[in-house]
Amino acid sequence: MTAAAPSALRRFLDGDLWYSFRTSPVAVGAAIVAAIMIVGALFAPWLAPHQPFDLASLSLMDSLLPPAWLEAGQLRYFLGTDDQGRDVLSTILYGSRISLLVGLASVAVAMVLGVGLGLLSGYVGGRVDAFIMRVADVQLSFPAILIALLIDGSARALLPRDAHSDWLAIGVLVGSIGLANWVQYARTVRGSTLVEQGKEYVQAARVIGVKPWRIMIRHVLPNVLGPVLVIATINVAQAIITEATLSFLGVGVPPTSPSLGTMINNGNNFLFSGEWWLVMFPGLALVLLCMSVNLLGDWLRDALNPKLR
After folding, report:
1. Average pLDDT, integer, range 229-254
2. Of 38, 164, 194, 290, whose CB has the highest number of CB atoms within 10 Å?
3. Which candidate, 55, 73, 56, places its Cα nearest to that of 64?
4. What is the pTM of this model?
5. Half-sphere exposure at residue 193, Cβ-oriented, CA atoms within 13 angstroms
6. pLDDT on residue 1
7. What whole-number distance in Å separates Cα of residue 225 and Cα of residue 188?
8. What is the pLDDT of residue 73?
9. What φ, ψ does residue 81 adopt, rounded to 5°?
10. Is the Cβ–Cβ distance between 102 and 177 less than 8 Å?
11. What are phi and psi of 28, to 5 degrees?
12. Exposure string for 25-39, b = 16+ CB within 10 A, e = fewer
């Protein structure tokens, strides 16, 4: 076991993927930015200079302070404060945790649902294939944000009011975004499955009596995951933007657990009164996070494309 790990690491470091990464300045820069923001979000309780959700530590006397380099700014509130006296930098770190959680979890939901339905549709075919693809075609005729709004609103209306909580609201939001984005995975996996099921290894498995579900999971699925990983990487940024849009519209993350979108929505109320930092810095954090993830997704797509090697 100990000898296998260094050899596997050595094979990775000598492989084409690592060479493509370290020779791409854009990919390296995007990875550094993404890593900084992810580490800042994960370790926010230890890295944040203040606890923005501890009511005992907040003071309205410190509300709407500008950034430290402007007049009336204070060094302990480097990026200023909001209308509740919360440190903007600390709130961005905590808000990024919610945005990343919703983005990654919704992509996982969409990927599991889309890969499962695409694999079933491509392998079984017939009426099952026709039904799943017609449902996908209908959903593609509507914008993803509209589907997410519809699912989110319906779920909130069906749930009893006494069952509402922050984590339940986040779960509903994750499910809404995931259900709005499964189609791309399903169509991609279906096309790859149609190609793979005609190859010799699948035919051989059928001849020796391997059950269909076992062929799908153990033989076909590993060979169709390459494009799925690329789509998932790019869709993380799209899911974060969708969450920010829903939160900006007031139907996303609850105000008691604010994300970057909630911060932008709150700061928008003070934009015309001169408190520009309440929108500027959360918006900049959102742009940097999504841009870095998108650039990594573009690099991964090119790196895994054999035609570009």
Report:
1. 84
2. 290
3. 73
4. 0.85
5. 28
6. 45
7. 10
8. 83
9. -130, 165
10. yes
11. -65, -45
12. eebeebbebbeebbe
Q: Is 274 left (phi over 0), alpha (psi -120 to 50) or beta?
A: left
User: Burial of 225 by CB count in 10 Å (0-12 exposed, 13-18 middle, 19+ buried)?
Assistant: middle
57 close to 49: Cβ distance less than 8 angstroms = no
**Domains along the chain with CATH numbers:** 27-53+77-308 (1.10.3720.10)
Contacts of 17 (CB under 8 A, 6+ apart): 303, 304
Q: How far apart are CA 123 and CA 42, in angstroms?
A: 40
C-alpha 152: how far from its chain's center?
17
- Statement: residue 141 has pLDDT above 50: yes
CA dist., res. 218 & res. 206, Å (int) = 13
The pLDDT of 80-100, averaged and rounded, is 90
Least confident of 65-69, 133-137, 299-303: 299-303
Task: Please tell me the total number of residues recorded for the chain in this structure.
Answer: 309
CA end-to-end span of the chain: 33
- Give the tokens for residue 161: 């009011």
Strand, coil or helix: 232: helix
Amino acid at 91: T
User: Is pLDDT at 305 greater than 80 in this prediction?
Assistant: no
Alpha helices in 55-208 (DSSP H): 88-124, 126-140, 144-158, 166-180, 182-196, 200-207
DSSP 3: T
Does residue 96 contact residue 260 with C-beta atoms inside 8 Å? yes
SS3 173: helix
Distance CA 185, CA 120 (A): 12
Q: Give the CA angle between residues 281, 287, 293 to the nearest 5°.
A: 135
**Cα–Cα distance measured from residue 134 to residue 123, given in angstroms and rounded to the nearest whole number:** 16
For residues 122 and 268, what is the distance between their CA atoms, to the nearest angstrom? 47
Question: Could you count the other beta carbons within 10 Å of the beta carbon of residue 154?
Answer: 12
Structure-block tokens of residue 264: 């932008």
